[in-house]
Design the sequence.
């Protein structure tokens, strides 16, 4: 009888410990969520400088730049790029675009590191060497943006032509209802391999193409 009571008491103690551990885990999760929410309102780079590197000063939410969903129209020549989508260690269209937008404060450092923070989406993802005449992207941007200044800091192969406000739920990929692709081949690809042609300019005679 005494042994059974001891086992029951030990089990109750174990259950109590497990219950307290579960409660502490829940509290820890809530603290982490509060910390993540607080970080969204803090500019760590400037606050560390103001606090002398010892204590982070509070950030005034009124100084935060409000950004709203926009549609961006751009074009690019992808001949020397490894596609549009960002890829670590590779030269891509989005990498150049995001670097320029960060420089002009169109996006935050958080958005530069994680594009989803700015709700970024492109209508179509192009591969290595592929160009786009009218690419549309959706992204959260400030109310006032200087397109001319941004283009001056973009490589000559990339140009932004317009930015327009759109509805909050707009998504360039999901709401794209058509995509047009054009495949361009050098005419020399149709040349007779037994004849001489102007391979330097990638051209062959029009008469040969007609035949």
Sequence:
């Amino acid at each position: 009888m005494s042994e059974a009571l001891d086992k029951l008491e030990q089990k109750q103690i174990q259950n109590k410990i497990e219950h307290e551990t579960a409660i502490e885990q829940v509290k820890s999760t809530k603290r982490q969520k509060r910390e993540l929410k607080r970080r969204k309102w803090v500019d760590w780079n400037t606050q560390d400088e103001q606090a002398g590197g010892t204590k982070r000063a509070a950030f005034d939410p009124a100084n935060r730049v409000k950004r709203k969903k926009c549609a961006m129209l751009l074009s690019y020549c992808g001949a020397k790029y490894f596609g549009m989508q960002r890829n670590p260690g590779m030269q891509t269209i989005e990498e150049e675009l995001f670097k320029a937008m960060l420089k002009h404060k169109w996006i935050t450092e958080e958005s530069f590191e994680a594009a989803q923070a700015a709700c970024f989406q492109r209508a179509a993802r192009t591969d290595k060497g592929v160009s786009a005449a009218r690419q549309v992207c959706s992204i959260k941007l400030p109310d006032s943006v200087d397109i001319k200044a941004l283009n001056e800091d973009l490589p000559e192969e990339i140009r932004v032509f317009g930015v327009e406000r759109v509805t909050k739920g707009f998504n360039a990929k999901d709401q794209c209802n058509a995509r047009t692709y054009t495949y361009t081949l050098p005419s020399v690809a149709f040349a007779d391999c037994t004849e001489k042609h102007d391979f330097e300019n990638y051209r062959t005679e029009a008469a040969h193409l007609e035949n």
